[in-house]
Amino acid sequence: MNHDVDKPGGLGMEQTNFPKGSETPHPKLPGEFPGAEVPGVGRIDIHSHLLPGVDDGCENVEESIACIKKLQAIGYTATICTPHIIPDTFPNNTVANIARWVEQLRDELARRDIDYTIWTGGEINLSKTITDWLSEHGVPTLADSRCVLMDYWDETWPAWIDGVFQWFLDQGYQPILAHPERMRCVWNQPEKLDHLREMGVWLQGNFLPITGEDGYEADQLIHRLIEEQRYQLLGLDMHRLDSLDSRVDGMQMMLNQFGQRFLDYFTVDAPRQLIFPET
Ligand SMILES: [Fe+2]
Known about the structure:
Blueprint: E1 43-48, H1 61-73, E2 76-81, E3 84-85, H2 95-111, E4 117-119, E5 123-125, H3 130-137, E6 147-151, H4 161-170, E7 174-178, H5 184-188, H6 192-199, E8 202-206, H7 216-227, E9 233-235, H8 244-258, H9 260-275
Parallel strand pairs: 1-2, 2-4, 3-5, 5-6, 6-7, 7-8, 8-9
The structure holds fe (ii) ion.
């Protein structure tokens, strides 16, 4: 691994078995989801807009490479690329195209002799009709696992949303709601998270809100949801290079507030245990 991570004051690495959240069941569905090879060491970011030119993330390959170098410097060895799946806004973000773009970035990394693993994924914006679109264009799972990342931005929970979560569950997918701490419908009706937990939906928090950059409510809620051990996963949700530093600041703040074992659990162990349970 990259030894820069061991420098004093950095986000040093230490393999641990921080137990919080690790009891979450992840039943195996043999043969349905092939999974992917996972590096033996290093942090894994499971939510990232790293692919160049496909959404509001990195604009070009140079920016993607610059981000990867920053990520390597704090101990990351792999990223699941999760471009926005919003058919009206990004109609080309299909499973087939995302796989092709990931392959292109892999080729670029190989050409530059950069040892960094990237996988396919997506961040599905939930809507009443999204299941029709996914049925036609495929469901982008995280690194060919059964896990599916999704977000939702309206101010209230719509009546149809349970049916959409159930559509994923019925087909053996593991729905993961991204950054609930940033969602207005969670601020307005947080008890809905209890219902989603009963349904079997997992939660993924972002590192940034703890810096206060996402506002007071998100900052309060990420503390509360961490203390209640509601998150299965945490992620950077990296977009552009210029926003990466503040997201890393959020990691540093989590390290300061919750400790090394907490940070290493959520960036090293949890992705391996929950998304790559075979490894
Ligand atoms: Fe995202």
